[in-house]
């Protein structure tokens, strides 16, 4: 229960920060951020594509009924989650080159949440 509350709080903070930038007329420009403490990663694929470090990477991939999301931050830290749960696989399938992606994983590496945002607020490649 405590983990769920933390997950909701962290997600709410990320959404609030993202929404605040939209209200101010700005676009999302998030580099890849990974938290092992909370078991999540997020980033703006379009922005990450344009960074000069060429280390960061965030994406989701679907093959048949299975999917995975992966992220690499600026320090080369790599995290990935897998799922065959239809709701997460459908969400993974919605990822585009300019998507804002957030995903959570459990101790076994399974996705416990996947969120994708595709709109004019995300940074373009």
What key attributes describe this structure?
125 residues; alpha+beta; three-stranded antiparallel beta sheet; 3 helices; four-stranded antiparallel beta sheet; single chain; OB fold (Dihydrolipoamide Acetyltransferase, E2P)
The class by helix and strand makeup works out as alpha+beta
**Extended strand count:** 7
Reported CATH architecture: Beta Barrel
Segments where pLDDT lies below 50 for 5+ residues?
A: 15-24
Largest sheet: number of strands, sense, barrel closure: 4 strands, antiparallel
Question: What is the fold-level CATH name, i.e. the topology?
Answer: OB fold (Dihydrolipoamide Acetyltransferase, E2P)
Strand order of the largest sheet: 1-2-6-7
What do you see in this structure?
With 125 residues, this protein is an alpha+beta fold. It has one domain (28-117): OB fold (Dihydrolipoamide Acetyltransferase, E2P). It has three helices and seven strands; from the N terminus they run αββαβββαββ. The strands form two sheets. A four-stranded antiparallel sheet has the order 1-2-6-7. It has a three-stranded antiparallel sheet with strand order 3-4-5. The termini are far apart. Residues 15-24 have low confidence and may be disordered.
